[in-house]
Design brief:
Oligomer: heterodimer
Shape of chain B: globular
Number of helices of chain B: 6
Strand content of chain B: 15-25%
Number of helices of chain A: 13
Shape of chain A: globular
Structural class of chain B: alpha/beta
Distance between the termini of chain B: 55 Å
Order of helices and strands of chain B: EEEEEHEHEHEHEEEEHEH
CATH architecture of chain B: 3-Layer(aba) Sandwich
Number of strands of chain B: 13
CATH class of chain B: Alpha Beta
Largest sheet of chain A: 7 strands, antiparallel
CATH topology of chain B: Rossmann fold
Radius of gyration of chain A: 23 Å
């Protein structure tokens, strides 16, 4: 049954982790796809904006409404079944299942209540060793539906690629309440055109003329390629084209991992070490960077809370760090040989590091890395009490690997020139570092926007994306124009209009209505 | 100082969930070195001086993971006592096996360290029973060990703390670890991975089918259930402290 609740301005349903907050007239709570269809039909009839919301862990205001109604998928949180096709096992689930919940089901092999999507699949999966869902969007409480809507990625994209690579099938409800069931391979574009059947007949959907950059991590704008799959149009569309009500995602075999943190005397040494690793035979599945500012941020919190990050004190010689996971198999020792050479060439060593192979080690190493954005998030949440319009400013730009060091240098010089305090960390293995700008007032926010614009232009000029994994939402729309020009923005808007003629779905996301 | 550390591999309690009947769901739960045993290994490595630290555990073959951890943390050698006849051992039978190990393999030990209890069974009986079977003194619930002219420990019974001088060849159970204890480095791991973990069965310890396992145990579990403690919160208006105190007295039935 579709339930409706009123919403206060301080309701959590009008904000996300960017700390942007909006307003809406009502909250809709569907239990199933029929309820979503009912909600879409009513909104379509009345021309009421409808913003879909998952676990609200987004960083760009994508689920933040500005008028109309919010539809939360949070009650659609059931793992439905398991199946198997030529590629391997997949799990069928509702959109609000979180990454953590999905992996918990597989770790515990809790398949007894699941349906067999293909004959005997749950029993086969149970008998087939350990499996997991490898897309790791850092925030494990994010929903799979939200991950698909933003083509989320994270540290393990280095080995496994983004969400897009793991989606087998989706069910999606369009603006007029039409439900589509789309398996990958079912519907391909003819050059740059799809024809989609909606309630009032066929709609011609013309893809933008730009070529979506697949050479770097990229979540800027709608995907557009000749002959692309219709599933890929909805992946990363940020709720602007339809509401995902069900998905099949592939899972893969789990294997033991050794987690490692190596410390270096300065940021440049860590960059040099990463260059060495890339050129070597080592096979890391995860390659993350923490700069000196990040380590000092951790030291600062630990001075007040010694249990923060569940780690020992960082060694005094540690001025930067690289985190990497290695498979615990025959490749481990050769990888360590390569790591030894690369580390020793840059002031590190196999003694100036920590490692661990228990799950709790991996979780606390990962927790240490995640503590950086989380600490800044909590700082901004506190600042918001005195500066209500402030929101978090974190860069999310990816560049080709051979331009990664150049981009890192540009971050530092640009932000220093604006006098903005910042920390640099993140997915160095994908040429995708995050910069968290530590804002103090609205003046800083203005400067941060100017710096971001400047850096986004640089990233694009280096062949990169101004939005690699967080998406665009409402905060980063100007970068769509920066990357694709006004023509690209207009083409995205026209594409949206062809599937959402009344422009009611997630208005304000990606492009202005 | 020659130190033996008796350790146990346990399910990672942070990942344990219960089913609708309150029973622990063990499937898929990762195994870890019992945290109290980890504290004991740290303390042993700090105390050892020239002498070797020997880690020992009784368990199935996968318990090697816990011993690898001990070696990474600085233990010099490790023994896995593994025999199907030992399956189902209670604290008494476990202590019997461990005491047999000490007598047959490390008779010249100076000190035995254990964790105060395992996070799965929580009986806290093995250290005391091991000491009893070896005929040596026991010092349980130890927060600190200080080695100087003599060996002193701080025992913490919550309602009482005491400092004791510990004779050599005693059994100490450790209840506290430093939150800032070091983590292994890659070199620590590589060194540990090169150490051979020696496996022993009942014959190697001079034990038979009746000595341990279910047959050698004195405990039988009849049933287990979730205690199902429910907590609730009552907010009391503290504008008038005297009235608030009256509410607390009434609630507490005092």
């Amino acid at each position: 049954m579709l339930r409706t609740r009123s919403l206060d301005t301080d309701s959590p349903y009008v904000a996300d982790e960017s700390k942007m907050s909006g307003h809406a007239d009502a909250l809709l709570i569907p239990d199933n796809e029929d309820d979503v269809i009912e909600a879409a039909r009513e909104s379509y009839r009345n021309g009421t904006p409808l913003t879909v919301s998952g676990m609200r862990t987004g960083m760009c205001g994508g689920c933040v409404p500005f008028g109309g109604k919010v539809l939360t998928t949070e009650k659609m949180n059931r793992v439905i079944g398991a199946g198997r096709d030529d590629r391997g096992f997949f799990i069928r689930l509702q959109p609000a299942v979180t990454v953590r919940e999905l992996n918990d089901v597989m770790r515990r092999k809790a398949y007894s209540n699941l349906q067999d999507v293909t004959e005997g699949a749950t029993a086969e999966l149970k008998a087939s060793g350990d499996y997991f869902y490898p897309v790791d969007p850092t925030e494990l409480n994010s929903s799979i539906g939200g991950n698909i809507s933003t083509n989320a990625s994270g540290p393990r994209t280095l080995k496994y690629g983004p969400t897009r690579n793991w989606v087998r099938r989706i069910r999606v409800v369009l603006s007029d309440g039409t439900a589509l069931d789309l398996a990958r391979g079912d519907v391909k574009a003819v050059e740059r055109t799809f024809r989609v059947h909606m309630g009032d007949g066929f709609h011609t959907v013309r893809l933008p003329s730009y070529d979506f950059n697949m050479d770097v991590k990229n979540s800027c704008g709608l995907m557009s390629r000749d002959g692309m799959d219709l599933v890929d149009l909805f992946i990363g569309s940020e709720g602007t084209l339809g509401i995902i009500t069900e998905a099949d995602v592939y899972v893969t075999e789990w294997h033991p991992l050794m987690s490692n943190i190596l410390f270096f005397p300065c940021d440049e040494d860590a960059y040099g070490f990463v260059r060495g690793i890339r050129a070597s035979s080592a096979t890391p599945e995860f390659l993350e960077f923490l700069d000196s500012g990040s380590l000092n941020l951790i030291r600062g919190v630990r001075s007040k809370d010694p249990l923060f990050t569940s780690m020992p004190d960082l060694p005094s010689y540690a001025k930067s760090a690289v985190l990497l996971d290695l498979p615990m198999d025959d490749t481990l020792r050769p990888s360590y040989e390569a790591i030894k050479m690369a580390a020793e060439a840059h002031g590190g060593s196999l003694d100036r590091c920590w490692c661990g192979h228990e799950l709790k080690d991996r979780e606390r190493f990962f927790g240490m890395r995640h503590s950086i954005p989380q600490t800044v998030f909590e700082y901004v949440a506190g600042l918001k009490r005195t500066v209500p319009k402030i929101h978090k400013m974190a860069t999310d730009m990816a560049v080709p690997l051979d331009r990664s060091d150049e981009m890192a240098g540009l971050y530092k010089s640009a932000l220093d020139s604006y006098g903005l305090e910042h920390v640099i960390f993140g997915h160095i293995g994908n040429g995708h570092l995050h910069v968290e700008i530590i804002l103090k007032d609205m003046g800083d926010l203005e400067k941060a926007h100017a710096a971001y614009r400047e850096l986004a232009k640089k990233a694009i000029s280096l062949g990169g994306s101004p939005s690699a994994e967080h998406g665009i939402g409402k905060i980063k729309k100007e970068y769509v124009a920066l990357l694709y020009g006004q023509k690209g923005v207009d083409e995205i808007r026209e594409l949206k209009r062809s599937l959402d003629p009344k422009m009611i779905l997630a208005p304000g996301n990606m492009v202005d209505p | 100082m020659k130190i033996v550390v008796a350790v146990k591999q346990v399910p990672d309690v942070s990942s344990v969930q219960t089913d609708d009947s309150g029973n622990i769901v063990r499937e898929g739960i990762p195994s870890v070195l019992n945290p109290y045993c980890e504290y004991a290994v740290y303390m042993a490595c700090r105390l050892k001086g020239d002498g070797p630290v020997t880690a020992v555990t009784m368990g199935p073959p996968q318990a090697r993971g816990a011993l690898l951890r001990c070696l990474e943390l600085g233990a010099d050698e490790a023994y896995l006592i593994s025999d199907k006849a030992f399956a189902g051992s209670d604290a008494f039978a476990t202590s019997k096996v461990l005491s047999a190990f000490v007598r047959t393999h490390i008779p010249g030990y100076d000190l035995i360290l254990c964790g105060k209890q395992a996070s799965d069974g929580d009986t806290a009986e093995v250290p005391a029973e091991l000491a009893c079977m070896l005929g040596v003194q026991q010092f349980c619930y130890v927060d600190e060990i200080v080695a100087g002219d003599d060996l002193r420990v701080l025992q913490n019974y919550r309602d009482e703390k005491r400092i004791c001088v510990v004779p050599l060849r005693s059994v100490i159970s450790v209840s506290k670890g430093e939150c800032n204890r070091r983590l292994p480095s890659i070199n620590d791991y590589l060194r540990a991975a090169d150490v051979e973990i020696k496996t022993l069965d009942k014959a190697a310890l001079g034990l038979d089918e009746q000595s341990a396992g279910v047959k050698g145990s004195k405990t039988r579990i009849i049933s287990s259930r979730s205690s199902g403690v429910e907590r609730s919160c009552v907010t009391i208006d503290g504008t008038n402290p005297s009235d608030a105190a009256d509410v607390i007295i009434k609630e507490a039935g005092m």
